[in-house]
Amino acid sequence: MAKHKEESTIDQTAEPNELTVVDYPEEAKEAAEAQKAEAAQNGDAAATVSADEFAALKTERDNLLDRLARLQAEFDNARKRQEREKQEFRDYATGNVVEQFLPVLDNFSLALKAEGSAEQLRTGVELIVKQMDEVLRGLQVQAIPTVGQEFDPRVHEALGSVERNDLPDHSVAEEIRRGYKIRERLLRPAMVRVVSNPQQTEA
To answer: Which segments carry the region annotation Disordered (predicted)?
Structure first.
């Protein structure tokens, strides 16, 4: 019993920093070897589980890549379909507008073939212009008021000034090119000449 106690203790006669550990008894050695064997067995099992997990992750990755490719194809098809529908709508809207101007074009062709006097030709052109104005009104396109109106840089474009005493200063004296807007959206500004009234300027 005393001998077993000596083998399981540390040699106290060694130098302070050189502790000597004596051998463990046979039972302790057997327990250590059994623990090592169990750890090795657990390691093999862990390696097997890791391989299974890797295979599962690889399958999941392949499924995600396949799904991503399908979504990309669906997105491309939807984009192409949307562009095609937009083009078809644009063509349809343009066709409706052009269709309304075809009678105007027909009347211009008839006027060019007419052999009447200059006055008759002028009357015919005036009727065509009136017809075109009616078509524009049907499309919600309105001419911008000009002569006699106060100059508005939002809808008028000044190409010069005219000195006059019979009109208010800074009002529109002459329309050079008609401007149009569709509802509240400006299509093009009206080109005008603006009044310069010396009497009002000096006052």
So the answer is: 1-48
